[in-house]
From TrEMBL:
This is ABC-2 family transporter protein. The keyword Transmembrane applies. Coiled coil: none annotated. Keywords: Membrane, Transmembrane, Transmembrane helix. It comes from Glycomyces niveus. PANTHER family: INTEGRAL MEMBRANE PROTEIN (PTHR36832:SF2), SLR1174 PROTEIN-RELATED (PTHR36832). InterPro entries: ABC-2_transporter-like (IPR010390). The chain crosses the membrane at residues 23-45, 57-76, 107-129, 141-168, 180-199, 228-250. It comes from the Bacteria. The keyword DNA repair does not apply.
């Protein structure tokens, strides 16, 4: 099955970069939103600090947010959704390949295609703005380790979202809602530390916070080693939990598949 996974991931990767002009544009200019965010926060912070973030720390936070956001939104969501909306899922059910596993391979292949944009934007931001470095070499290593869980987390959340297509037979509104929740509750839009206490608690009770706040907190040393390992363990638990929940929901939804009204 590993060869099938690799083949599906490769196809998704090639599909993502098939339109080379669009792909090149995203690679070259994908960091503009980051640069705009840096300009805004520079104006807001100046020589002061907010929520424990001074300008140097905020620059590092925003760079990490850009990196994680680029990866989180890079998967082939519409490819998955269209298989349900167009009825191709009926054909998938006849194949000796697990639907969830196949979609995971395709999704991660699409995410890999976004790596050049993420690396280029991050490199430019580091060279131009020189954000704070990691709190320690161990913090840097744990940050990289925590970033790896973005792949299964992003897939798990997106896969649960596309399963809604069985019921709604539409995906655009679901995608907007999902993207808004990820952007807000992850801390990409505004650091969780700047939110009211009750909203911080709500954010930490959901998986979205691990996209940005968790790696940024580890990188900047806002948690100690034990705290960092605890956050990574929570990431892993959410990743597994989302995949298990999606499989259970799939078993119920697939009992009634509507294809072209029949």
């Amino acid at each position: 099955m590993a060869s099938v996974d690799i083949a599906l991931a490769t196809i998704a990767f090639k599909r993502k970069i098939a339109y080379k002009t669009t792909w090149l544009f995203s690679v070259l200019f994908g960091g503009w939103a980051l640069l705009a965010g840096l300009a805004v926060w520079n104006h807001l912070l100046g020589d002061g600090e907010l929520g424990g973030y001074d300008w140097q720390a905020m620059k590092a936070y925003l760079v990490i947010g850009f990196l994680t956001g680029t990866l989180a939104w890079a998967g082939a969501e519409w490819d998955m959704a269209n298989r349900i909306l167009d009825g191709l899922v009926a054909i998938d059910l006849t194949k000796p390949v697990d639907f969830q596993r196949a979609r995971a391979a395709e999704y991660i292949g699409g995410m890999v295609a976004s790596v050049p944009a993420a690396v280029l934007g991050t490199a430019i931001a580091v060279l131009v703005f020189r954000p704070a470095g990691p709190a320690s070499p161990l913090a840097a290593a744990l940050t990289v380790f925590s970033l790896l869980f973005i792949f299964p987390l992003a897939f798990g959340i997106s896969y649960l979202a596309i399963l809604c297509c069985f019921v709604t037979q539409r995906f655009l509104g679901i995608q907007w809602a999902k993207d808004s929740m990820v952007a807000f509750f992850s801390g990409m839009m505004i650091p969780i530390a700047l939110m009211p206490g009750w909203l911080q608690g709500l954010s930490w009770a959901m998986p979205f916070v691990h996209f940005t706040t968790t790696p940024a907190s580890i990188y900047l040393g806002r948690v100690d080693t034990a705290g960092a390992l605890g956050l990574i363990a929570a990431e892993a638990a959410w990743a597994v939990g989302l995949l298990v929940a999606a499989r259970l929901i799939w078993r119920q939804l697939v009992k009634k598949v509507t294809v072209h009204g029949g």
